[in-house]
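Pipeline run #58 for the internal structure catalog. This entry was flagged by the ingest filter as a single-chain record with no existing model, so it goes straight to prediction. Upstream metadata was stripped on purpose; only the residue string is passed forward. Reviewer on rotation: M.T. Logging verbosity set to normal.
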Amino acid sequence: MNRGQAFLLLVIALVSALVLLIVIPFLEYVVASLILAYVLYPIHRRLEGRIGGAASASGLIIATTVAVIVPLVYIISRFVNDLRSISSGEINLDIVAIEGRLSELLGREIEIELADLLATAGDQLIRVLFDGYTGVFRFALQASVGVALMLFLLYYLLRDGPAFVEWSKDTVPLPPHVVDDLARKIDATTWGVVIGHIVVALAQALLAGVGLWIAGIPNAVFWTFVMAVLSLLPLIGSFLVWGPAAGYLFVIDAVTAGVLLFIYGVVIVSLFDNYARPILIDQQAGLNPGVILVGVAGGVYSVGFTGLFVGPIVIGVLAATLETFRKEYDRI
């Protein structure tokens, strides 16, 4: 390596660090725009030939705003309100009935402070997700700017995405066949995470959340968010919420609602997961549920809401890169 190459690499490293420093405050919205562009591009490619690239991108952005962003903003606002209520001790559950039944099962001499446990859990979630109570207002302000930035980036990603991908492939200092193989593996991993696991988990949680709301379970939006993460667990998933919810209805003598919720969970929620996940997952991605769960937990903690997608994708890309290295270069 000569002095010119070393100097150029140093400049690239310094500028990359500065770019990362600039992007970090809105990193999750940049990532969200990339994920939305990745999902919407197949539709954009079909519409582009009929109505033009600009019209197609603009139409998809309007449709995304109406179908995804507006409902998501409403759900997140409800989630924050539920979370703040729970952390302040406003549980809205019949705590006395639950504690009495648990004391009967575990022994009357045991005092169970369920309200305090739930309040502590809600307080910790606020600290993790929003960096404390003051962070909720900062999150709302940043989110409004971030959503506008995300939609702006989404337009140009849909319009110029293929050119950016080709430029990236040409820029990577690897043989073309290695780049193509790595891109194929990353694409399979990303599709498997975004569509096969995350979307199915969110859809399953939404179905279960509708059941909780119809059954009259308090703070249904909060528990729906909890199920969105638990749905990534194999076999049990959202049952960890709707199962005890059905039991809670039995405890407070709402037997009919408890039976209907249990039947709904078994027939609708569980069967959806059993059939939808194998259909939508790209089997070539080779995604282990344990890896997905670790990626989701770490991603949400590090990045925020979009960490649901970012964490598993990053881990999947690392696995794809290591596999490509083993296949192409580890031959000594």
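catalog note: The chain has a mean pLDDT of 75.
catalog note: The chain has twelve helices and no strands.
status: ready for reviewer M.T.
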